[in-house]
Write a structure and sequence with these properties.
With about 160 residues, this protein is mainly α. Helices cover about 100% and strands about 0% of the residues. The radius of gyration is 66 Å and the shape is rod-shaped.
């Protein structure tokens, strides 16, 4: 009986010990598995968030670069158009000024030419009148001389 009791107690103890070890092993394996799963999920989540953040940052930088390049291009285009407009207006203004100066020069030359022509005509008129006056005076003197000579001749006769 004592032997059977000891044997039974030994078997019971061994069974309890085996069950305890088995339970502890299962619990440890479960905790380890859960920890590994949790760490994997956490790592994957952090990696995904990092990749997403980097993608958003890259897209933002790319968008800002494109926007900056567009603004710069528009500014350069606007400045080029403005410069061409100013240059065109300057050329047009210079052309108008040159045409005005040329027109004024032609008008002045015409007035000068007309003045010279008028003075020439006036001078020729004065000269002609002087010649006519001198001819009349000469004819008068000649006529008076002839008359005087006739009177003298008649007187003598």
């Amino acid at each position: 009986i004592t032997h059977d009791k000891i044997t039974h107690d030994k078997i019971t103890h061994d069974k309890i010990t085996h069950d305890k070890i088995t339970h502890d092993k299962i619990t440890y394996d479960k905790i380890t598995h859960d920890k590994i799963s949790h760490d994997k999920i956490t790592h994957d989540n952090i990696t995904h968030n990092k990749i997403t953040h980097d993608k958003i940052t890259h897209d933002k930088i790319t968008h800002d670069k494109i926007t900056h390049d567009k603004i710069t291009h528009d500014k350069i285009t606007h400045d080029k158009i403005t410069h061409n407009k100013i240059t065109h207006d300057k050329i047009t203004h210079d052309k108008i000024t040159h045409d005005k100066i040329t027109h004024d020069k032609i008008t002045h030359d015409k007035i000068t030419h007309d003045k010279i022509t008028h003075d020439k005509i006036t001078h020729n008129k004065i000269t002609h009148d002087k010649i006519t006056h001198d001819k009349i005076t000469h004819d008068k003197i000649t006529h008076d001389k002839i008359t005087h000579d006739k009177i003298t001749h008649d007187k003598i006769t």
